[in-house]
Write a structure and sequence with these properties.
By secondary structure, the chain is of the alpha/beta class. The protein folds into two domains: about 1-25 and about 280-375, no CATH class; about 30-270, Spore Coat Polysaccharide Biosynthesis Protein SpsA, Chain A. Helices cover about 50% and strands about 15% of the residues. The chain is built from 13 helices and twelve strands. The protein has helices at about 1-30, 55-65, 85-95, 105-110, 115-125, 145-155, 170-195, 210-215, 230-240, 260-275, 280-305, 310-335, 345-365, and strands at about 45-50, 75-80, 100-105, 130-135, 140, 160, 165, 205-210, 245, 255, 370, 375. The chain has a seven-stranded mixed sheet, with helices on both faces. Strands 5-10-7 form a three-stranded mixed sheet. Strand 11 and strand 12 (about 375) form a beta hairpin. The two termini are about 40 Å apart.
Length: about 375
C-alpha cells in the first residue's frame, strides 16, 4: 500500500508541475496589440475540405470580408474526394465572386487515392505566394485575421505561426469540449513559448512555402490520418527553433463548432490519439503516457478505496489538486478567449475528461476509427 501511495503522489507531483510549467509559459507570451500598419505580405490560404457542403460558404465569406487588399491573397479550396455538394458549392461561390482569386482543386483529379496531407502538399506546390495560411472548412474568423498575422510576421522572422482556435459552444456538452480544447490551445502555445513544442491546430496555422519544402512537408507520416499540423510543427521547429511562434492576439482567433454527439467526439479523439506513439520527439510520448498513468491512478485509487479507505483519500487528493492546478491554468486561457464562465464547468468536466482519456487512450491504438466517412486503422 505504501508503495502505491508513493507512486500515486509522484504521478500527481509530476502532473501538477507540468501544468504549472505550461501556466508559466502561457503567462510569458505577451499579448500582441500592436496598431496595424499598411500590409505588405501576400498569402495563399489553403482550405482542405471533405463533405463540408453545409459550412464551406460561411467559411469563404468570412475570408472575403477581411480588411485586407484582395489582390494580396488567394484562396485554394482542396476538395478531398467529397461525397456531397462541396465542390459544386465552391464553384458557384467562385462564379458569384469574380473579383477574388479563388481556386478549387479536386484532389480526385490529381491524386485519385490521395488523402488530406497529400492534398495540402499539392496545394502548397500550386500556391502563388510564399506565406501559406492553413485553415479548416468549418472555421470562421474576424475581419482582421489576415491583417493581424501579416503585421506580426513583419516584425519578427517567422517560418511558422500558430494562432488561437476556439470552440463556439451553446449547450453544456459543447461547453465542456470548449473548455478542454481551450486548454489544448494553451498547452500548445505555452510549449512553443518554452521551446518544447508539442501540439498546434491546422485550423489556424501559417507557414512559409520554403520551410515546408526544406523540411520535406509530411514525408514519413503521409500515411497517418492525423498530424497534418503537429508533425509539421516539430519538423519546422527543429530546423528553425527561433522562428516558430504562437500569436496571442484576439483578432486572429478562428472559431469552429464542437462535436455534436458523443460518438463524433470519440471518433475525433481517437483520430488525435492514434498518432501518440508516432512522434520522433519521445518526450511528447512520455508526457502522454505519464498523464495517462496519472488519470488511471486516480480511478484505481477511488475504486479500491471503496474497500480500503486510505486509497480513497489518496484518490480524492489527486483529484482535488488536479482540478486546482488545471483551474489556475484554464482560467487564464478562458480569460484570453473572453469566456471566463467556462471555468465553472471544470468540476463537471473532470470526471468526464478522466474517463474518456482512459478509454480513448486504449481504443485509439487498438481499434479502427471513422472520420469524414473514412475508416482508418
Amino acid at each position: 500500500m505504501e508503495v502505491i501511495c508513493i507512486l500515486s503522489f509522484a504521478l500527481l507531483l509530476g502532473y501538477a508541475l507540468l501544468i504549472l510549467f505550461y501556466l508559466v509559459g502561457w503567462l510569458l507570451i505577451k499579448e500582441y496589440k500592436q496598431v496595424l500598419s499598411e500590409p505588405t505580405q501576400y498569402f495563399t490560404i489553403l482550405i482542405p475540405a471533405r463533405n463540408e457542403a453545409k459550412v464551406i460558404s460561411d467559411c469563404l465569406n468570412s475570408i472575403l470580408t477581411q480588411e485586407y487588399p484582395r489582390e494580396k491573397y488567394e484562396i485554394i479550396v482542396i476538395d478531398d474526394h467529397s461525397e456531397d455538394a462541396t465542390s459544386l458549392i465552391v464553384k458557384q461561390f467562385i462564379s458569384v465572386n469574380p473579383l477574388f482569386n479563388i481556386r478549387l482543386i479536386a484532389l480526385q483529379e490529381h491524386l485519385p487515392h490521395g488523402n488530406k496531407k497529400e492534398g495540402i502538399t499539392l496545394g502548397v506546390s500550386m500556391a502563388k505566394f510564399e506565406h501559406i495560411l492553413l485553415t479548416d472548412a468549418d472555421c470562421l474568423r474576424g475581419t482582421l485575421w489576415i491583417k493581424s498575422i501579416a503585421q506580426f510576421i513583419q516584425t519578427k522572422p517567422t517560418q511558422m505561426l500558430y494562432a488561437p482556435v476556439f470552440f463556439s459552444a451553446e449547450n453544456t456538452f459543447e461547453k465542456i469540449q470548449a473548455l478542454e480544447f481551450a486548454g489544448l490551445v494553451g498547452i500548445g502555445a505555452a510549449a512553443i513559448q518554452l521551446k518544447n513544442p508539442n501540439m498546434c491546430s491546422a485550423a489556424n496555422l501559417m507557414f512559409t512555402k520554403t520551410a515546408f519544402e526544406i523540411v520535406g512537408g509530411y514525408k514519413d507520416n503521409m500515411h497517418l490520418a492525423s498530424g497534418d499540423d503537429e508533425f509539421l510543427l516539430h519538423k519546422v521547429f527543429k530546423k528553425y527553433p527561433n522562428e516558430v511562434w504562437f500569436l496571442k492576439d484576439r483578432r486572429t482567433i478562428v472559431s469552429t463548432s464542437p462535436n455534436a454527439s458523443l460518438d463524433q467526439l470519440a471518433q475525433q479523439r481517437k483520430r488525435w490519439v492514434s498518432k501518440s506513439t508516432k512522434y520522433d520527439e519521445r518526450y511528447i510520448t512520455a508526457i502522454l503516457v505519464g498523464a495517462y498513468l496519472f488519470n488511471l491512478s486516480i480511478v484505481v485509487n477511488l475504486i479500491v478505496g471503496i474497500w480500503q479507505a486510505p486509497f480513497f483519500y489518496v484518490g480524492i487528493w489527486q483529484l482535488f489538486i488536479k482540478t486546482l492546478v488545471e483551474g489556475l491554468f484554464l482560467y487564464q486561457i478562458c480569460a484570453f478567449f473572453n469566456d471566463r464562465k467556462l471555468i465553472f464547468l471544470l468540476p463537471l468536466a473532470e470526471p468526464f475528461h478522466i474517463l474518456y482519456v482512459l478509454i480513448i487512450g486504449i481504443w485509439a491504438n487498438t481499434k479502427p476509427f471513422t472520420w469524414k466517412n473514412r475508416t482508418h486503422h
